[in-house]
Amino acid sequence: MSATDLTEITGLSLAEAKRAQQRQYGEPIQWLGDEVSKNNFIEHLIDLGANVVQGGRFMHIGGYCDKGQALIWLTEQYRENFNNPAILTIALGDGQNDSPMLEAADIAVQIRSPVHNFPKLYRQFKTTRTQDYGPQGWAQALQTLLAKQLLSSSTITKR
């Protein structure tokens, strides 16, 4: 897929699309066939040892690594390097490929998608869903979380 085609599908700028194409560890593909063929293709890839995850717009093919493992690793790096065991993680996502990251985070935010339902999560605590889609949903969620954090950490003194 050309960078120009990628900009049309994703809304990325041409420079962002070119950077997105510089992947080293996995490949996103846009499935254009029917569901039966897609499922057969996925089964074949799994038989070959690949990991296949459906994202918001693309199917991601790679090894057995996911965003949850990456979040856990990154959190540990911060805890060790800053000697702070109280690092709080917030994950935001809208696709099934985000589920492991949402499950691994202290606070999970599911961003509404215009093309599919919220990804399935097993956790029942500290999970929220946005009303808005995409970047607006992302901003809405973070503004709400930060406002709650500021309110809970501020001290009110009576005179």
TrEMBL record:
<dbReference type="InterPro" id="IPR036412">
    <property type="entry name" value="HAD-like_sf"/>
</dbReference>
<protein>
    <recommendedName>
        <fullName>Mannosyl-3-phosphoglycerate phosphatase</fullName>
    </recommendedName>
</protein>
<dbReference type="InterPro" id="IPR023214">
    <property type="entry name" value="HAD_sf"/>
</dbReference>
<dbReference type="Pfam" id="PF08282">
    <property type="entry name" value="Hydrolase_3"/>
</dbReference>
